[in-house]
Write a structure and sequence with these properties.
Supplies octaprenyl diphosphate, the precursor for the side chain of the isoprenoid quinones ubiquinone and menaquinone. Its EC number is 2.5.1.90. It catalyses: 5 isopentenyl diphosphate + (2E,6E)-farnesyl diphosphate = all-trans-octaprenyl diphosphate + 5 diphosphate. It is a single chain. The protein is mostly helical and 320 residues long. The protein has a single domain, classed as Farnesyl Diphosphate Synthase (Orthogonal Bundle), CATH 1.10.600.10. Helices cover 75% and strands 1% of the residues. It has 17 helices and 2 strands. Strands 1-2 form a two-stranded antiparallel sheet. The chain is globular.
Length: 320
């Protein structure tokens, strides 16, 4: 990521500055929780995507920085809400905001950060961008509700799983790259290419997250291994395992999802590792990576475009 960010280093510094500035509130608790989650770091994938997309098309103004910040705020708000819904205790290697302050303050500060993002979007005075982000946040909410509905449901299909991750994760990646293109005054072909790139990148990113939930290391990932299993989330490695011919493995997975239990985590890790489930999920991520890179053929050949291709490779070849 360090090499990828180098081409937009000054813009990212401006984004980090604006993130801190926009956290101002007359209510100290709002600032305390806001700073806590923002200063935890993170990959800044979505702001990076906005800035790279705009730069690839020759844009060098301030609007991309404002959009990148607003999108990072939307992402941050979803994290605060997700951790409450999932009863998560660890994120990015330290206690979640809800573990520190409780559920109610986390939800309300998430609302504050959401609304601050839209204040920033209003200040941009760009109705198409506003419409894009309004639709995107609506779809994210639908994805979260669908995921909640599917939690504990071992009959969830691969198609239903992909719908969840498209709405919950990939769509904000899509808005990031498409938003960067729109700010740069891209052609319809370029806008569609960057929409495809973001969607494919986000899907690949989430697929690898679901692999790492059974293959990663807690200290590298910054969260506990098996968290998704404890929440009853039927992710692709589990769905693949349940449709294989090994009835014993399928039954263990079904019961774990239905009971929202990680008590048999070691057996499930053994199952998804031995039956090809992780390889299958990884191969699906590679297909999305290839789709993302093909989309870049419609963009100018420059350093920013090349770094976007590297970003697609990084999304698949990572350990955290």
């Amino acid at each position: 990521m360090q090499d990828i960010r180098a081409v937009i280093s000054s813009e990212l510094e401006s984004v980090d500055q604006l993130i801190v500035e926009q956290l101002h509130s007359d209510v100290p608790l709002v600032e305390d929780i806001g700073h806590y989650i923002v200063e935890a770091g993170g990959k800044r994938m979505r702001p990076t995507l906005v800035l790279l997309a705009a730069k690839a098309l020759g844009y060098d103004g301030r609007l991309s920085i404002q959009l990148a910040t607003a999108i990072e705020y939307i992402h941050t708000a979803t994290l605060l809400h997700d951790d409450v819904v999932d009863i998560s205790m660890l994120r990015r290697g330290r206690p979640t905001a809800n573990a520190q302050w409780g559920n109610a303050p986390s939800v309300l500060v998430g609302d504050f950060i959401y609304s601050r993002a839209f204040q920033m979007l209003v200040a941009m005075n760009d109705m198409p961008i506003m419409a894009l982000l309004a639709t995107t946040t609506n779809k994210i909410a639908e994805g979260e509700v669908l995921q909640l509905q599917k939690a504990g449901d071992p009959t969830t299909t691969e198609e239903e799983y992909l719908t969840v991750i498209k709405n919950k994760t990939a769509i904000l990646f899509e808005a990031s790259s498409l938003g960067g293109a729109m700010i740069a005054g891209a052609s319809p072909t370029q806008c569609e290419a960057l929409r495809t790139f973001g969607s494919a990148l986000g899907t690949a990113f989430q697929l690898i997250d679901d692999v790492l939930d059974y293959q990663g290391k807690a200290e590298e990932m910054g969260k506990n291994i098996g968290d998704d299993l404890a929440e009853g989330k039927p992710t692709l490695p589990l769905i693949y395992t349940m449709r294989q011919n090994n009835q014993e493995q399928a039954t263990i997975v079904e019961q774990a999802i239905r009971n929202k239990s990680s008590e048999q985590l070691s057996q499930i890790i053994e199952a998804v590792s031995s039956n090809g489930a992780l390889e299958y999920t990884h191969s699906c991520a590679v297909k999305e990576q290839e789709r993302a890179i093909r989309a870049l053929e419609h963009l100018p050949d420059n350093e920013a475009t090349r770094q976007m291709a590297r970003l697609a490779h990084l999304a698949v070849n990572r350990r955290a």
